Amino acid sequence: MQEKTSKDPLPAPPAQTLDFTQLTRAIKAWAEELGFQDICIADAGSDMAKAESGLSEWLRHGFHGEMDYMAKHGTRRTRPAELVPGTLRVISARMNYMPAEARDSWQVIRDGEKAFISRYALGRDYHKVLRGRLQRLADKITAATGQFNYRVFSDSAPVMEVEWAQRSGLGWRGKHTLLLSREGGSMFFLGELFTDLPLPIDNPVGDYCGSCTKCLDICPTQAIIAPYRLDARRCISYLTIEHKGSIPETLRPLIGNRVYGCDDCQLVCPWNKFAAVTGEGDFSVRNGLDDTSLVELFSWSREEFEARLAGSPIRRIGHEQWLRNLAVGLGNAPFSAGVISALQARRDDPSSLVREHVQWALHQHDSRAARVLESP
């Protein structure tokens, strides 16, 4: 038998001898080392009846629009053990995404010639980043405990991320339906690790929105129809990302220059004065997307779109939908020869979806010009 040297890893202790309180402290320390700003633990077996009924009512009203995946999987969305058998705990983690070098969001939104892109999408696709870090966390736990059952998630599979993050004590659900933290606002990503380890659970925190309604009041399309209730069919994030067809004409002028997502409800939230910039290089601004003109982005060919946005979450919507969104932005932009020239260059685009929105945009400029001529 080979003699064990000091360099060989020590065997992991059996589960029954583990100090789970000490292990939890270690997990939280490892998570911080891996770049997470906070991590909390919820009981996977907690009563989710209220969350299930709330989701069912939301779906019954059709507020999910074309997001059919929200109606699939039944109770697996609210009962982790049905999704990953043996799950006892849901570990929720958050990671800041606001890049320090990004141009001020309000300045871009108020500059009609620019394209506003939600600040979470300026860098690398967060799905890959968070899943990779959570996997490394799981590897560290494995080294300490031996093999255990787990699965990592980041905005993937039927997981109610905000609900579990709220139950774990990571924050509370704001009136805009996003998770809020007293220490970090809402500009962060969430990820989860389902595990069969009986770790001590954290306590939920209170709701600190109070009587504030700033997020409801500022929503450009009034998609937040009541506190904690979102009609996704009117939400600009849904319309520019999830919605694949023609954007309703009545909503197009309200979108302004927001061509991928919308941050207004977060930007106005008082708690986001505590939102910290990220230290993650993966979330740094790429391709100048924090401060680029609509005309320039509209000129990208399919090949340029694919190459420039490789590794970006924006790439998932495809070039056609990208052009559709930009056409709406150009229709809302101040008149200029460059805007009209850019739109006219795509009047005969192979895509009927793009052509429709280009024609609408040109009509918007024609109508505004006519009103100017008719005014005394």
Automatic annotation (TrEMBL):
It comes from the Bacteria. It catalyses: epoxyqueuosine(34) in tRNA + AH2 = queuosine(34) in tRNA + A + H2O. Belongs to the QueG family. Cob(II)alamin binds at residues 77, 155, 179, 190, 237, 262-263. Binds 2 [4Fe-4S] clusters per monomer. The lineage of its organism: Bacteria, Pseudomonadati, Pseudomonadota, Betaproteobacteria, Nitrosomonadales. Its EC number is 1.17.99.6. Monomer. It holds the Pfam family QueG_DUF1730. TRNA binds at residue 244. One of its GO terms (biological process) is tRNA queuosine(34) biosynthetic process. This is Epoxyqueuosine reductase. Catalyzes the conversion of epoxyqueuosine (oQ) to queuosine (Q), which is a hypermodified base found in the wobble positions of tRNA(Asp), tRNA(Asn), tRNA(His) and tRNA(Tyr).
